[in-house]
Amino acid sequence: MLSRDGTSGTRITALPLGSGLRPEDLGSAGFRADHGVAYAYASGSMYKAIASVELVVRMGRAGLLGYFGAGGLGENELDASLRRIRAELGDHRAFGVNLLSSRPEREERTVDALLAHGVRRVEAASFVQITPALVRYRLSGAHRAPDGTVRTPNRVMAKVSRQEVAEAFLAPPPAGIVHALADAGRITPQEAGLAPSITMCDDLCAEADSGGHTDQRPMTALLPAMLTLRDRAAMTHAPAGRVRIGAAGGIGTPEAAAAAFVMGAGFVLTGSINQCTAEAGTSDTAKDLLQRAQVQDTALVPAGDMFEMGTKAQVLRRGLFFPARANKLYELWLRHGSLDELDPDTADNVQRRILGRTFEEVWQEVRARYAATRPAIVERAEQDPKRRMALVFTWYFAKATRVALEGDTDHRVDFQIPCGPALGALNERLRGTPREHWRNRHPDDLARLIMTGAAELLSRVARLTSSSQPFAAA
Ligand SMILES: Cc1cc2nc3c(=O)[nH]c(=O)nc-3n(C[C@H](O)[C@H](O)[C@H](O)COP(=O)(O)O)c2cc1C
To answer: Is the CB of 212 under 6 A from ligand 1?
Structure first.
């Protein structure tokens, strides 16, 4: 049979001829038990509710875990969405919500909403260090059970692609932050006292080459590194040994999921494939484009929200000008100190073809947007022409997201649609089947397809191995 190491996943040893694995056998039993789900599988957050209420509810009703795409939503919208999810799923079906690294006051407001709605699971992403808001969420409600074990009702899945960030999540909450929160009365002394006995996360998802923000590391390098890191962390802080290491990035087929489980993943998480389903909260036009994507139809662009830091995101390329235009803007920004330094032809080209407005018109719009809420941004940009150029250029990125979500066909070539190669692989698999069309694709059904297929594949491989046949593809 399969040997399980309790938390870290499934490793194939010998499987008797004729026996079959079921999808619910794959990955960590702890993941399934803790989250109360059928499979060690989750659908990841997608901003602005692309991972919509409908998508998360559909996953929850199927006994699966989906994270709601809270990024970029206003407070009222988040509040209304959490109410709806709660009303649909009640207290017992699993769901989670995205907690993105952001300005401290914004993170705090999101955590306030999560705690007010009793949200028990977050997918923490884009963090480079542990923040007070994250620690407050993690420690709220922590208690010692009658059997002496420490319980943390607020579960954190940390999505990471860098080892130093993974280390921070495998460690206890930083003592300085814990003391400050306790002194301010934001957590109780009892909760603070339990901090040294826990880790910052329950699940650590190694995100390889994915749709959206990505470091584009290959899964075959990243996942083993994270597994080793977890095992090493457990030598100095025993609770780290219980953290489940999962895999995301590039998973859109049974083969990809099977590979992750063979490498020791405790769970898998998908993103790109779920954007091309009936429940995803983006436009039909965007889904039509996604449905035709092949593996090679994605491109890297600067991430609009981290433009000046050089962070990259992966988007759909096929049939779109957005990737080339976004990269052009970044290249111009790198090479020039201000909009005034652009030569007249280039400046004219950017304003007419890319922005569709003059630099001044765009700046006035950006200025008006920030003047009321974040005047410091305006002040800084008015003193720093390079910063102002970045704000004018990233206006285009925000517009490109908006037109894609709205399905504004007048601006179809400017659609910014985060997407990784996983979707191309799935599209290829579904071509000529009823699920070829996105209207027949649903996130829970895709989860079943991937996990059932992975279980069949691994059963086949295990039979080959145990019957001493050569380990070769047919
Ligand atoms: C359209 C889209 C939007 C995304 N938005 C977010 C987000 O707001 N927050 C987040 O943590 N991850 C976001 N992601 C990443 C996914 O949650 C997931 O980690 C990733 O897509 C997995 O890799 P894959 O695309 O190869 O399946 C997004 C991905 C896509 C495709």
So the answer is: yes
pLDDT in tens, 412-452: 999 999 999 999 999 999 999 999 999 999 999 999 999 99
Instruction: Answer whether 132 contacts ligand 1 (Cβ < 6 A).
Output: no
Domains of the chain: 3-282 (3.20.20.70), 295-414 (no CATH)
Find the 157 Cα to ligand 1 centroid distance in Å. Answer: 14
Q: H or E stretch including 245?
A: strand 244-248
Which residue, judged by its Cα, is nearest atom 28 of ligand 1?
Answer: 46
CA of 298 relative to ligand 1 center, distance in Å = 14
Least confident of 12-21, 59-68, 151-160: 12-21
**Rounded Cα gap, residues 215 and 71, in angstroms:** 19
Ligand 1 atom closest to 270 (CA): 27
Entry field: residues in the chain: 474
Q: Is the CB of 207 under 6 A from ligand 1?
A: yes
Give residue 17's pLDDT. Answer: 43
Q: What is the pTM of this model?
A: 0.95
Q: Mean pLDDT across the chain, nearest whole number?
A: 94
> Is 80 exceeded by the pLDDT of residue 5?
no
Following DSSP, what letter does each residue of 272-341 receive, concatenated? HHHHTSTTSSS-HHHHHHHHT--TT-EEEEE-GGGGGGT-EEEEE-TT-SHHHHHHHHHHHHHH-SSGGG
The DSSP-derived string for 392-449 is: HHHHHHHHHHHHHHHT-GGGGGG---B--THHHHHHHHHTTSGGGSGGG--HHHHHHH
Pocket test of ligand 1: the residue of 48, 50, 268, 272 to mutate, having most ligand atoms within 8 Å of its CB, is 272
422 lines ligand 1 (CB under 6 A): yes
Ligand 1 site, residue 291, Cβ cutoff 6 A: no
Kindly give the number of the ligand 1 atom that is closest to the alpha carbon of 123. 11
What does the pLDDT look like over 47-103, one tens digit per residue?
999 999 999 999 999 999 999 999 999 999 999 999 999 999 999 999 999 999 999
Half-sphere exposure of 183 (CA within 13 A, CB side): 7
